[in-house]
Amino acid sequence: MDVILVAAMEINISDRNIYRETRVKEDIKNLSLNPMFSAYINRYRENLGIACLAAFLRENNYSVQIINSNIESRSNREIIDQIMLAQPLLVGFSIIYELQLFNTLSIIYELRNRGYEGHISIGGPCASCMYDYLLKTNLRIDSVIRGEGEYTILNLVKSIEEKKNWKSIEGLAYIDHNNIIYNRKKKCIEDLSSLPFAARDSLYFLKNKGFNTRTASIYSSRGCKGNCIYCTAPQSSCLENVKWRCRSGESLFYEVEYLVKEFGVEYLYFCDVNFIGYGDDAKVRLETFSKKIIENNIKISFHAEIRADSIEHDMLMLLKKAGLKDVLLGIESGSQRLLNLWKKGISVQKNKDAINEVKKMGFLLEPAMIMVSPKTNRKDLIETIDFIIETKIFEDNIPMNMFNKMVLFRGSKAEENLKLEGFIPEVNESIISQRIQNQCEIKALCKELISKEYSIEDKCVDAVWEGVILQINKLTWLIEDFFPEYVSERYLKYDKDDKNNKEEFFSLVHSIKGWRRNLDSLIYELLLCMKKNLLSNNSDMSNIKSQFENIVFLYEKKYFEQTPELCDGINRLIDIG
């Protein structure tokens, strides 16, 4: 084996009080719990990064194994045993976001303790932004691949195989005599269509296990021309000579055709930062792709992330005919002051127009929102609440997904600005460079590396946010964990020949469906309660908390009066906050 590429299992070690981040369940465990869940899963965590690298290395005659723990439910011990057995020339780890950091560094620590002497490299957006700190650790990480990785990893493997000096390879960062060296790229891959299709080892794994492979991740472009300060995409794009590039419509169509024929894929999750893109080439690729999908009668639906200022009616109509179903719009805020501060480059009115257009055309809207940030004041949050109510985006999809606090990602401009202002501390380099001796010290290292939690400057906004997020976490837990598992458990005990049992089961399902169907009314009440407390400048945390709790309690009582054991079970088990 020449190369093993690893996507470690996600785990949250931050202090952020967001349930969607603390709840991480492997895809195969989700499917094993109830195979019917596959009909509701719109994205398996394939990790397109290592899938693309694996395909490129294989095209160049290198043997590559992908270990994707989120798909395969592989423990760290199993991953380490596999690497030690194979003894590859290179082990590459992907850190897309902070949730993968702890397990990645834990595996590297144990690998070195077990005596693995091969080359260890890390890549991915998160690793690219904190590359200097990763190299300064005592974990003996040999290199970090920054940005686009195909040619960098190919040249690295070749150099290792031929026992040549690899330290001049473009795109590679390493440490030399306590100095961090980064070899900036002189060129990037401008023709993405020349690359092989992503390796689909994860889908084959699921397929061979007998699971439905109805969904796949895919990309049609790379990069971003935006300057949003809360995002790491601008920093990642700056690592390449061309900030944004796209594949041809033909290349995209042929990969989709392959996925449909080989795996029975029905739903595609496009991972592009901005699916519509920039310029004439961007439009041509989407027109070509859409027309070929329609002409060849390929039956798919797909998700795309679109900037509000790139909405064009005719283009969206064509994409809809081709299968575009879910549209994520980067709305972020109803406050023009914050949009300007965050360098979003868009107006509140433009966001409203885009929402109206997307809704009018019949798409499922997923509004991406940053409800609060370090500098959000009462006026900002009231404007955002009014915006949500006016546009009625609380009625769409899963409304809890709107309740986001800005994350100060390592390497983002927002993080840099707040460090300069003394709002968050500088990295403690003594923790980074200390000698690691156990898992607790790895966790302390990771906590120092990841984005910092913070209190919002406006005390009223902070109190209102902390009060409402407890209930949002509870509602998210009910939808994503409690109800699916509870209904599955009850279904296994369901006796269709027992009339009382049958009535009880369907009464339960009816109650849960009613609760889920009308969540928008509950979110509306929570938004009004937020606004009332903001207008009164209330910062009494216990008082605010009890207000939100009472609203949710009355809502649950309305739908679960006929199933009191369900309501009692929820109240006994819930301990999110």
UniProtKB/TrEMBL annotation:
Pfam families: B12-binding, Radical_SAM. Residues 210-443 form the Radical SAM core domain. Signal peptide: none annotated. CDD domains: Radical_SAM (cd01335). Residues 33-167 form the B12-binding domain. Its cofactor is [4Fe-4S] cluster. Keywords: Iron, Iron-sulfur, Metal-binding, Methyltransferase, S-adenosyl-L-methionine, Transferase. The keyword Cytoplasm does not apply. GO terms for molecular function: 4 iron, 4 sulfur cluster binding; catalytic activity; cobalamin binding; metal ion binding. GO terms for cellular component: cytosol. This is Uncharacterized protein.
